[in-house]
Write a structure and sequence with these properties.
about 325 residues, 5-stranded parallel beta sheet, TIM Barrel, about 40% helix, 3-stranded parallel beta sheet, alpha/beta
């Protein structure tokens, strides 16, 4: 919980990971390329005071995660969104067993989402059903640019993807988080294109499609889709740190999202451990759209409370303590 100027904010970090990118887990050069690209994002978009040594960044472990999020980071609840990347890492990038064990130990603080890949066919469908039961899944994280054998990506509207989405609908896995944002070396940029979101959102109206990274650098394309599809939501992972390096660009991002989607379909994410949540939460609470950017309306306290946690809490049925729900009397 974060408090500023007499206002209290319930914080849900809707996109975190517990990864292992140490050399022993790297399957090939691409594993190193991937984590090095992550570290470049971290180094280039973080305040100097928030920079991590490279070795810490490769693997930080569960104790640091709990400390950075819940002791120091103002976070009340966080949601794991793990990437598999088994072509690059022996045990995968996101550490399933470690992350799930942590979520089991702290169910009041952590939710574990898992992942699937439609290119695994019938075997993958059977695994999805087992995973849904084991993990109690309410959501999954999809990485459409992930490599698999000779394939360097898939589309949300592929026939096999539809079969997996049908299964999600049947199993009650209603929250489909999709990486549709900046590319990460060596993945292909065009495999993260947002265009396929339009069709699946129309065909699966019972599912929520949370477009992580809000489609950047294709923000305009994303907004035109999301304004027509009420089950499409924006995740702010990767967008958030521009509040430090390019605040006017961040103002444009949040201004466009509020114009096209409104504040009920936008979710805060630190993308931990790309960035730590503490400084992002604090700066967003303080942030205001520059007065000369008159095409956008000022951010209200109510909007910030929804974005920082109440929207994700509603989507995942996370209990919000009394007094932290949005009241009609919240000032603008």
């Amino acid at each position: 919980m974060y408090e500023k100027d007499g206002e209290r904010y319930f914080i849900v970090d809707a996109h975190i990971a517990l990864w292992d990118a140490r050399p022993a887990n790297q399957r090939n050069i691409h594993g190193k390329q991937f984590i090095d690209c992550f570290y470049d994002y971290h180094r280039n978009l973080s305040p100097e005071s928030e920079l991590w040594p490279y070795e810490d960044y490769l693997y930080y472990g569960r104790e640091r995660l709990m400390r950075d999020l819940f002791e120091n980071g103002h976070v009340d609840h966080a949601i794991f969104q793990p990437a598999r990347l088994s072509e690059f890492y022996h045990t995968g990038f996101g550490q399933t067993e470690e992350a799930f064990a942590l979520a089991q130990a702290h169910p009041d603080k952590l939710t574990y989402n898992h992942n699937w890949d439609p290119r695994y066919g019938e075997e993958g469908l059977a695994q999805l059903r087992r995973d849904a039961e084991r993990f109690g899944l309410k959501g999954v994280k999809l990485y459409t640019a992930e490599w698999h054998g000779d394939s360097r990506g898939y589309k949300l509207d592929d026939p096999w993807t539809y079969r997996y989405l049908d299964a999600c609908q049947e199993l009650g896995i209603t929250n489909i988080h999709v990486h549709k944002g900046p590319t990460i070396r060596p993945l292909d940029r065009d495999s993260f294109d947002v265009a396929d979101v339009d069709k699946v959102a129309t065909d699966f109206t019972e599912l929520n499609f949370i477009v992580e990274h809000c489609g950047l650098p294709r923000l305009e394309d994303f907004c035109w889709i999301a304004t027509q599809e009420p089950n499409v939501h924006a995740g702010l992972a990767v967008a958030m740190p521009f509040i430090h390096t390019r605040p006017r660009y961040f103002a444009q991002i949040i201004g466009e999202l509020l114009y096209w989607l409104d504040e009920d379909r936008i979710q805060f994410s630190s993308d931990y451990a790309l960035w730590t949540p503490k400084w992002l939460v604090e700066r967003f609470v303080d942030f205001q759209i520059p007065e000369d950017m008159t095409e956008y309306t000022p951010l209200t306290v109510a909007q910030k409370k929804k974005i920082l946690g109440l929207n994700a809490a509603r989507m995942y049925d996370i209990a919000v303590p009394a007094g932290l729900e949005l009241a009609d009397s919240v000032p603008a």
